[in-house]
């Protein structure tokens, strides 16, 4: 019997299942929120055995997330990975998977502000306590660890002061006290370092940044080994942190050029840092500089690459900061990072607003701190633009 046009329109997909199509060169976008089963026995088989290549509901995973998870797990030398809708989704899923009421978390004092806000304003209400400290101070870390400390959170390259953490040494101290070490590897990426290979327990990324690489997608990922990664996956499904198929597809596309982009961005950042330091008009913070406290460690851990983020510190006057930004019309103030174009951010008024005024003062998050995410542009153009912008500082010198 011929079906009504409305029925035919609704069922148009039936003869175009991906299994009947030739293998595409590029993974398709599986833009579906749910997947089909033949009958109750089929769905019970899914729940009991979870066979590869079978999916249930978008929140539980889909082919695009599976492709991305497998790829990033390989890059990070992990047993598995779990993708999320944002970097904070990844951090939340990881912390919720290992911490319970009464547990204590140690947090690097120059951590990304969103991580601090999560622990201080949300998880504190559920009985998780928090301490901030300098994780590079081994004696302070040893004193701060106790039997209630479940998790220590640091960054391979800290945001925004670019402190370099000795991951292997930090992991050894944490494990001595039974604590897990989680590393946010967003700034370094696995192109520079794979923290699990240095005995970290969990690695997180905001894939919005270098993994995606083009400022057009939000995402996050958690990497760990078995059985911890499955515990994190269960938490992610339960709280609903799943990434959409299209967003996972965009990040997977970005990952294909990760090493090429990061190599060029690191090269540009190293050259720009040296040039800005030669102007002697402001403090320049970048691990490639011999004046940086983590210079030698960065050479060792990152194989002579130093990351593509740098910061400069000028007078603590927002009017001067704004004037510098206005003199860089082609380099926008955009409070994110790691796209292919160079951008500026101002941690004091954006990422680190969640710190108290005293914490920002003590930790060095000053009004005059400007963070620069270096892109892939021609380095001579970047040098010329920044020289013009920073000339106002030289004019103000007595």
UniProtKB/TrEMBL annotation:
Task: Write down which residues bear the modification named N6-(pyridoxal phosphate)lysine.
Answer: 209
Q: What is its EC number?
A: 4.4.1.2
- InterPro entries, per this entry? Cys/Met-Metab_PyrdxlP-dep_enz, Cys_met_metab_PP, PyrdxlP-dep_Trfase, PyrdxlP-dep_Trfase_major, PyrdxlP-dep_Trfase_small
**Could you tell me the superkingdom of the organism this chain comes from?**
Bacteria
Which ranges are annotated Basic and acidic residues under compositional bias?
A: 1-23
Q: Which cofactor does it need?
A: pyridoxal 5'-phosphate
What are the entry keywords?
A: Pyridoxal phosphate
A GO cellular component annotated for this chain's UniProt record is: cytoplasm
Give the molecular function GO annotations. Answer: homocysteine desulfhydrase activity; methionine gamma-lyase activity; pyridoxal phosphate binding
Protein family: Belongs to the trans-sulfuration enzymes family.
Instruction: Please identify the protein, giving its name as recorded.
Output: homocysteine desulfhydrase
Has the keyword Transmembrane been applied to this entry?
no
Q: Where is this region: Disordered?
A: 1-24
Give the first-level EC class, as a single word.
lyase
Q: Does the keyword rRNA-binding apply?
A: no
Tell me the GO BP annotations in alphabetical order.
transsulfuration
């Amino acid at each position: 019997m011929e079906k009504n046009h409305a029925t035919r329109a609704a069922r148009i997909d039936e003869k175009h299942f991906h299994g009947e199509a030739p293998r595409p060169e590029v993974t398709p976008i599986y833009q579906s929120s749910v997947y089909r089963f033949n009958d109750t026995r089929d769905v019970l088989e899914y729940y009991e055995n979870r066979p590869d290549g079978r999916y249930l509901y978008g929140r539980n995973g889909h082919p695009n997330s599976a492709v991305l998870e497998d790829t990033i797990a390989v890059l990070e030398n992990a047993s598995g990975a779990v993708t999320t809708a944002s970097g904070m989704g990844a951090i939340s899923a990881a912390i919720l998977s290992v911490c319970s009421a009464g547990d204590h978390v140690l947090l690097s004092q120059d951590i990304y502000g969103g991580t601090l806000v999560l622990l201080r304003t949300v998880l504190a209400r559920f009985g998780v306590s928090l301490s901030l400290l300098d994780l590079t101070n081994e004696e302070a870390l040893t004193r701060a660890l106790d039997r209630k400390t479940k998790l220590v959170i640091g960054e391979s390259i800290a945001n925004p002061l670019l402190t370099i953490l000795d991951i292997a040494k930090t992991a050894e101290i944490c494990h001595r006290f039974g604590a897990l070490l989680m590393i946010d590897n967003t700034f370094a990426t696995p192109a520079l370092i794979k923290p699990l290979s240095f005995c970290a327990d969990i690695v997180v990324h905001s894939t919005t940044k270098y993994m995606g690489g083009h400022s057009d997608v939000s995402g996050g990922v958690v990497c760990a080994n078995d059985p911890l990664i499955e515990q994190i996956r269960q938490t992610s499904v339960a709280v609903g942190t799943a990434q959409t198929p299209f967003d996972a597809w965009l990040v997977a596309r970005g990952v294909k050029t990760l090493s090429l982009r990061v190599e060029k961005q690191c090269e540009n950042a190293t050259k720009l840092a040296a040039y800005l330091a030669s102007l002697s008009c402001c403090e320049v913070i970048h691990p490639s500089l011999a004046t940086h406290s983590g210079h030698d460690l960065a050479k060792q851990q990152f194989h002579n690459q130093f990351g593509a983020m740098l910061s400069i510190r000028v007078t603590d006057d927002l009017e001067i900061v704004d004037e510098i930004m206005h003199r860089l019309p082609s380099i926008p103030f955009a409070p994110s990072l790691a796209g292919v174009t160079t951008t500026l951010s101002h941690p004091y008024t954006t990422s680190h607003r969640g710190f108290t005024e005293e914490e920002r003062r003590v930790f060095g998050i000053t009004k005059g701190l400007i963070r620069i995410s270096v892109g892939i542009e021609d380095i001579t153009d970047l040098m010329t633009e920044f020289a013009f912008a920073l000339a106002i500082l030289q004019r103000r010198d007595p």
